[in-house]
Specification:
By secondary structure, this protein is an alpha+beta fold. The protein contains seven helices and six strands, in the order H-H-E-E-H-E-E-H-H-H-H-E-E. The longest helix is centred in the C-terminal third of the chain and has 24 residues. This is Small ribosomal subunit protein mS35 mitochondrial conserved domain-containing protein.
Length: 280
């Protein structure tokens, strides 16, 4: 029986019917053909992934080199918001990818900055906002991510603010004058005020530097006089008095001698006398 050639083996593989498995059943995609046999003349899948990543990096490099310098034509000076735009929307954008959190829109506004609101209506609006009101910052904060796009979530928040304002201005409804404002949801952060004498002024910094220099000079003088306690010398003197210095040195010599006599890793041990050396 002779060996089969590569062509015959490939023909047998094509004719062989294999079970596609449970996850591969379904409609066949006509646009995707059969995988060709690997002939050793192409990159593997991991290599193609690296090449695709390199192409993407080169594309961003070209944009940075040629497109970014042209953006200065579209630059506009920053103008802080005025009283006609009290609502502030915040978005989250993930560059180059789609993320579920990118649909979220956050709205912040101050009740005192809203036009055409009396103090009674402002207090009613704060009570209607409930736990969304921050008394420390005087801000109402709410967010929405129930819809698929940012525009839908922004529109929902705008309608919600419109309903709150309409209810706060409606004199036919209850003004909640007899209901106290409930701020139990807000836990204010403690702010500690340190004494003035604790602050590091230039004069105090100079005094501390002079103190450190004086301590270093005193330590150097003690070292020269021999009055400075040296831990290493104290231990050495104690060992000499107890007669343990010679014993420790003997142990160190034995360790060094046993280390030199031991066989090196990866090499055999040589034995034998005049009759010949053997390695095993």
């Amino acid at each position: 029986m002779g060996l089969k050639s590569d062509e015959e083996i490939r023909e047998e593989r094509k004719d062989r019917k294999e079970d596609p498995g449970f996850f591969n059943y379904g409609e066949e995609n006509e646009d995707v053909g059969e995988d060709e046999d690997f002939q050793g003349d192409d990159l593997p899948s991991a290599g193609h992934g690296e090449v695709d990543q390199h192409r993407e990096l080169r594309e961003y490099a070209r944009l940075a080199a040629w497109e970014l310098p042209m953006l200065h034509k579209l630059a506009q000076p920053f103008e802080p918001p005025d009283k006609t735009t009290p609502l502030r929307f915040r978005y989250t954008t993930y560059m180059g990818e789609q993320h579920p959190a990118s649909r979220k829109v956050v709205l912040e506004f101050s009740p005192s900055e809203l036009p055409d609101l009396s103090p009674l209506q402002t207090a009613k609006l704060i009570k209607l906002a409930g736990p969304r009101y921050n008394p420390s910052l005087n801000l109402i904060k709410m967010s929405c991510e129930s819809f698929e796009t940012q525009a839908q979530n922004k529109r929902y928040l705008g309608d919600l603010v419109y309903k709150l304002l309409k209810t706060a201005k409606d004199a036919s409804t209850d003004n909640f004058e007899d209901v106290p404002a409930d701020f139990r949801h807000h836990k204010p952060k403690p702010f500690h005020v340190f004494p003035e004498r604790w602050k590091l002024t230039p004069e105090r910094r100079k005094v501390l530097e002079e103190k450190r220099v004086k301590e270093l000079q005193d330590e150097e003088a003690k070292r020269k006089d021999g009055s400075l306690v040296d831990g290493a010398s104290v231990i050495s003197e104690a060992l000499n008095r107890l007669g343990m210095r010679e014993m420790l040195e003997k142990r160190e010599r034995e360790k060094l001698g046993s280390g030199n006599a031991a066989a090196r890793p990866g090499r055999g041990r040589v034995t034998g006398g005049a009759g010949g050396a053997k390695r095993f």
